[in-house]
Design a protein that fits this description.
The protein is of the alpha+beta class. Helix content is about 30%, strand content about 20%. Pfam families: ketoacyl-synt (PF00109), Ketoacyl-synt_C (PF02801).
Length: about 350
């Protein structure tokens, strides 16, 4: 059974949440949630240029002098199962999704302008869904695309939610560009890899010495903070039209917490629908391809064959822990949004009406 959805740049995390709902309701036992960014490039660049979204130079999330986004292409998938099922069957549990929330604040000031209040509401609902306090997370993988308004709005909503106890912050957009619909799952995969390795990769982007907008933004490889509990992080994705998503995920290498969660999940499964929190969901596989959209079919083939591991080859595996050495992680594009930046006033001449 397949379901296709569109929530703009929040689509990936919306798919993950709907997958979790399907597992909780028992309508599926294993779900592959994925997102693909393989747009019509001339149309994409014309549209973003018309909006003034493209920056001057590379994407630089959370930098004081960042001026806009740089888009990328690719696809990302995660394999999800109920935690108790995964443990019973001996699956490797890469991470546990503890809670999530979806909020739409499209009635705000403008469909293309992010809303601080909607983001804050999304955080509150996600932590309530997980049964946690916001300060229980060690790190937040932010939406942070490098736009002056978007990055500052996100920081304002985080400050309102966390105050002086802000977790570490970061964004993968400087590594691989903004993958639009696939951005949320790509961010989730980065978090899963970071929790497993015990190292938070730096937020990179642009040849700039400008300071970060907040001191908690990770600018160098950083050991995961030591706590009494499991490593825990959150992932955000925000889309046009007010689509907001926030997801809480944890990693427990010892397996002790996972076993306890499985017992709680069994109790939850016996409750009537809507009477309690959703059961914990295990991430049992991840896969990603970052590059030209024409090769996204490679990932679909890997999915169909049951091999959801990241595709082999230096030019197909996203280097989520550092800047790509040769730039191929951004993939070839038909129009260079930086070198051939299209002023909005020129669009009628490039794409005249019939």
């Amino acid at each position: 059974r397949r379901l296709v959805l569109d929530a703009a740049c929040a689509s990936g995390l919306y798919a993950v949440r709907l997958a979790c709902d399907a597992l909780a309701l028992g309508t599926a036992d294993t779900v592959v949630a994925g997102a693909v960014c393989a747009p019509d490039l001339p149309l994409l660049h014309l549209s973003f240029s018309d909006l003034g979204a493209y920056g001057r130079g590379a994407s630089a999330p959370f930098r004081a002098d960042s001026t806009g986004i740089l888009t990328g292409e690719g696809a990302a998938v995660v394999v999800l199962r109920r935690l108790d099922d995964a443990l019973r069957d001996g699956d490797e549990v890469l991470a546990v999704i503890e809670g999530s929330a979806l909020v739409n604040d499209g009635a705000g000031q403008h469909p293309l302008v992010p809303g601080q209040a909607g983001q804050r509401t999304c955080y509150d609902l996600a932590y309530a869904d997980a049964g946690l306090a916001p300060t229980d997370v060690d790190y937040i993988e932010c939406h942070a695309t490098g736009t002056p308004v978007g990055d500052r709005t996100e920081l304002a909503s985080l400050t309102a939610a966390f105050g002086e106890r802000m977790p570490l912050l970061g964004s993968v957009k400087g590594n691989i560009g903004h993958l639009l619909t696939a951005a949320g799952i790509t961010s989730l995969i980065k978090v899963v890899l970071a929790m497993r390795s015990g190292t938070i990769p730096p937020t990179v982007g642009g040849a700039t010495d400008a300071p970060f907008l907040h001191p908690r933004v990770v600018g160098a490889p950083t050991p995961w903070p030591a706590t009494d509990g499991p490593r825990r992080a959150a992932v955000s994705a925000f889309g046009f039209g007010g689509a907001n998503a926030h997801l809480v995920v944890s990693h427990d290498p010892a397996g002790e917490r996972a076993a306890g969660a499985a017992e709680a999940t069994a109790d939850d499964a016996a409750r009537p629908t809507g009477s309690g929190r959703l059961p914990a969901v295990a991430v049992t596989g991840v896969g990603a391809y970052v590059g030209a959209g024409a090769r996204v079919a490679d990932l679909a083939h890997a999915e169909g064959s049951g091999d959801i591991a990241a595709l082999a080859g230096a030019d197909t595996v996203p280097r989520l822990h550092g800047t790509p050495a040769d730039g191929r992680a951004l993939g070839p594009i038909a129009l260079d949004p930086i070198g051939d930046r299209i002023p909005p006033r020129d669009i009628p001449h490039l794409n005249p009406a019939p």
